[in-house]
């Protein structure tokens, strides 16, 4: 536990030199929520709003050294993971996330552009290595379908998928994002042993959604670092990402970034 009262949060993820996703988005989001942000890099990713050009994973010794440096000096009060490209990295990270502080897992598999970010074995091992120790897992619909192995085409399917994740994979909670079952954007939060909470917002027709998953999970992590409950943290995250999409800066030639400077 951090001996200081100032909230601290850590992101463990890949980079984005164009600033819209990955640790760049996470650190901006932490800052926007008045939380001191730290980052351990898993992969250097050459990407922009049009797609991913090149990925270079850091070696395992470097990843472990980064994590050791953070935890021995400024322990985070909450942390999140994003892009973790291989199983060996997951096993290193698990030692640092296992029950120590609230842990938000964004199961990043594919970029907004459609480019794959992690190998097939890593996609399968999410379930065994990290999900059992997660406080919250934040898949979108396509990620949830991959995790559970069946199509999600209705709210009944959402509930079935969420219960499968909770019961078979072991996280404390799961939020399935991006329900397209009406005129609004719905996210469904299931907490083990508690009632479903639904978060609803207007749906904005825009291509500028680069880094939405990173940003949403980072804001939740920041709020957990400040001591908010899971429902409160997710609610703030939903309000933040909705406004960030609505007020996106219109940058880039592809799927542009959201606005990380909004105030909610």
TrEMBL record:
Keyword Transferase on entry: yes
Cross-referenced InterPro entries: HMP/HMP-P_kinase_dom (IPR004399), PM/HMP-P_kinase-1 (IPR013749), Ribokinase-like (IPR029056)
Reaction(s) this enzyme catalyzes, per UniProt: 4-amino-2-methyl-5-(phosphooxymethyl)pyrimidine + ATP = 4-amino-2-methyl-5-(diphosphooxymethyl)pyrimidine + ADP; 4-amino-5-hydroxymethyl-2-methylpyrimidine + ATP = 4-amino-2-methyl-5-(phosphooxymethyl)pyrimidine + ADP + H(+)
GO annotation terms (biological process): thiamine biosynthetic process
A Gene Ontology cellular-component term: cytosol
Lineage top rank: taxon: Bacteria
The Pyridoxamine kinase/Phosphomethylpyrimidine kinase domain, residue ranges: 16-259
Functional pathway: Cofactor biosynthesis; thiamine diphosphate biosynthesis; 4-amino-2-methyl-5-diphosphomethylpyrimidine from 5-amino-1-(5-phospho-D-ribosyl)imidazole: step 2/3; Cofactor biosynthesis; thiamine diphosphate biosynthesis; 4-amino-2-methyl-5-diphosphomethylpyrimidine from 5-amino-1-(5-phospho-D-ribosyl)imidazole: step 3/3
Protein name, entry field: Hydroxymethylpyrimidine/phosphomethylpyrimidine kinase
Organism: Veillonella seminalis ACS-216-V-Col6b
